Amino acid sequence: MLVGYSGVGKSTLVNALVPTAMRATGVVNDVTGRGRHTSSSAIMYEVPSGGLIIDTPGIRSFGLAHILIEHFINAFPDVAQAAASGCPRGCTHESADAGCALDAWATTPDERTRLTSIRRLIAARLATDAR
Ligand SMILES: Nc1nc2c(ncn2[C@@H]2O[C@H](COP(=O)(O)OP(=O)(O)OP(=O)(O)O)[C@@H](O)[C@H]2O)c(=O)[nH]1
Ligand SMILES: [Mg+2]
Ligand SMILES: [Zn+2]
Question: Which of 23, 32, 43, 73 has fewest C-beta within 10 Å?
């Protein structure tokens, strides 16, 4: 199943794999780099070389509004383990100032990049709480 922002090329890929699909494809706005929400239905096709593929309409936004922070962290077992052993109870993992242990855990460049990305998601999640 192809899922992603409008204009990333989902229908183009489906047409390449299933020539008879003839899915409409759109153009990307030169200024914003975004698609035009060309597909409005989700359709499944049989791929001639085998398997099934589903084209879906482009998503407008992605958020984690209903996910509890502690459940979210559990999606990353190594991070969850570091949080469980080092963070204070109820830690939101936003920064070391509040006692978060994840800065001490992230020692390699890859871990630092992941921590930055995880904190960006946490900040977006906490921002939806305030609304
Ligand atoms: N340069 C480049 N352009 C691409 C690629 N894939 C798709 N495009 C172009 O991007 C535009 C949008 O492609 P679509 O296949 O309509 O995108 P989509 O993901 O189905 O978009 P929605 O149906 O709006 O969600 C078309 O003009 C494609 O020709 C790619 O790999 N490289
Ligand atoms: Mg499409
Ligand atoms: Zn923490």
Answer: 32
